[in-house]
Amino acid sequence: MQEFFRRLFLSRRLAAELVVASFFVNLLSLAMPIFVIQILSRYIGYGFDGTLYTLTSGMCLALLLGYGFNAVRQKIAAAICRGPDAELHEKVQQILAQAHLQPLARYSHSELHELASGPNLIQAAFAPARVTALLDMPFFLLFFLAIYLISPILSLITLIAVGVSVLAGFLDKEANRENDMDMRDAATAYRGALAAAMSAKEAVRAFWGGEYLKGLWRRQQENIEQVRNRIFDRQGRAKGVLQTLASLLRVAVYAVGAKLVVEGDLTVGALIGVSILASKAFMITNGFVQAFLMLRKADETQERLGKFFSLPRESEEGTTLQNYLGGVQFKDVGFAYPTSSTPLFESLNLAVAPGTLVAVSGYNGSGKSTFIKMIVGLYSPRRGSILADGVDLRQLSAPWWRRRLAYLPQEPVFINGTFRDNITLLAPDANEETLEDAVTAASLRRYLDQSPTGLDTMISDSGASLPVGIRKRLGLARALVGQGQLVVFDEPTEGLDTEGCKAVYDIMSRFIQLGRTMFVVTQDPRILNAAQVIVDLSTKPVPTVRETPRSVPQQVAGGSHG
Is 489 exposed, middle or buried (CB count within 10 Å of its CB: 0-12, 13-18, 19+)? Predict the structure, then answer.
């Protein structure tokens, strides 16, 4: 309920208008029982048509006014929640885009999908109909008081029925909590398996994995079906209990009320009016319980989102350097994954002067890509620090630092947009000449010329459907547009044909001529032979650093990939 009141009082004016509208909606709801009582008591008793016309006109006016006030308060309730709902969606997007990669990587894709859907669940909990149901609850006293003034005994019956229905609603919710958690876990597992199958379409077909997936999905669907049936059974019983209680309330009101009518303590019109009032009071409390329970579920989602929102984010407000020259220094750097008992590497000390070509080598799994991601700032050292011209990377503005880099990951991944959108991600204001130079240098022009839309060709599935060599070329073009002072390539010639390798060699030679600092993960002998420093991560736990006698890096020879 704390979030409900927070939203309600974000705008005190709107909150006041909503409360006033709710007051009139509920007040006008009294018109129907009053109309029934007056018709049965006055018109039928005296037969004066003027009374009938007056009462009917007044009732129609009350219905129109009630409809109008209800429509107004629905719009106000929607307006009150519009800002907080948008804020929730924006926070999720910010975390997905700006959270540090290491803590974010602890969440599976299916868990991230569930968290990203969290704002929708909270938004449903704060739908206008549920907000107004919560606000109607205080006006239960209005209907209860009206019943009490007519018949204290019937008001007691109403109060007992309402109390039992509220208790039944809360008990059912508590009993169903475990089922809700089981359903969430089962749905998350199913989404994860489905996403994995979609991303491995080729492997499923090439290795005839359909039978395995059928069995997996069948088991997961059976699990979901079992949990769903338990939930439906409980919901059915809960609905049956409420319907039975509502019917029992009417039966009790008419049974006791009939006795009072016979004894002369109540009129028939008053009895029917009390029945209408009791039904309205029962509806108000039932609506309140359902809305309150939805808020409880939203609070649980909000709690999970709160932990998600607390993930550390990359800073946009950090330090920027006036004239970054490309120097990088590693001071006692060590790294270990949280799930690992041993460090990937440690005690790495290395000072790289601007214009140096550093090659990074090692066996598979030795930490080469992790090393590169630390330079980019995607991962942080577990110990020590990495400095850019003497400033710790963790103190730098993340957007500023990324614009200083020409980064090519080992497995480039792209957004679902056009080739142009992806190439210019880091430099959206890049002109056509810069864009064309990057496409040509990356040897991507021939592929784009085969498409009628060229650079405006759409990319789907994060580029997974593109050939490996085209993904690498597109990643190269994206790296070149930024014109960064620090070049960071991870296996740049891997998966490329002769033409692609030559493009990489030419690009690296051009960077050497421009005096750019380069870190390149590679097993390519042409690149290794051109390097001034080689960091070998195969030696554990302290990497071996070898320096060549040359004062400047050699040009990377062109030709076929060795």
Answer: buried
Strands of 544-547's sheet in order across: 405-408, 486-490, 517-521, 357-361, 533-536, 544-547
SS3 state of residue 523: coil
Question: 486: helix, coil or strand?
Answer: strand
Number of neighbouring beta carbons within 10 Å of residue 3: 15
Cα atoms in the Cβ-side hemisphere of radius 13 Å centred on 220: 17
**C-alpha of 84 from chain center:** 14
Which tens digit of pLDDT belongs to each residue from 328-355? 999 999 998 887 778 889 999 999 999 9
CA 434 – CA 420 distance, rounded (Å): 12
Tell me the backbone φ, ψ of residue 168, rounded to 5 degrees.
Answer: -65, -40
User: Tens of pLDDT along 277-326?
Assistant: 999 998 999 888 888 888 888 888 888 898 999 988 888 888 888 888 89
Looking at residue 561, its pLDDT comes to: 40
- Whole-angstrom distance, CA of residue 555 vs CA of residue 507: 10
The tokens describing 21, both together, are 């509208």
* DSSP secondary structure of 367-412: SHHHHHHHHHTSS--SEEEEEETTEEGGGB-HHHHHTTEEEE-SS-
CB-CB neighbours of 63 under 10 Å? 14
Strand 517-521 and strand 357-361: the pairing is parallel
Alpha-carbon gap, residue 76 to 237, rounded angstroms: 35
Distance between CA 377 and CA 396 in Å, rounded? 9
Beta bridge partners of 335: 345
Name the pLDDT band for 327 (thresholds 50, 70, 90). Answer: very high
DSSP string over 205-239: HHTTTHHHHHHHHHHHHHHHHHHHHHHHHHHHHHH
pTM given for the model: 0.76
Sign (positive/negative) of CA torsion 413, 415, 420, 424?
A: negative
210-262 vs 152-199: helix crossing angle, rounded to 10:
170
CB 29 within 8 A of CB 66: yes
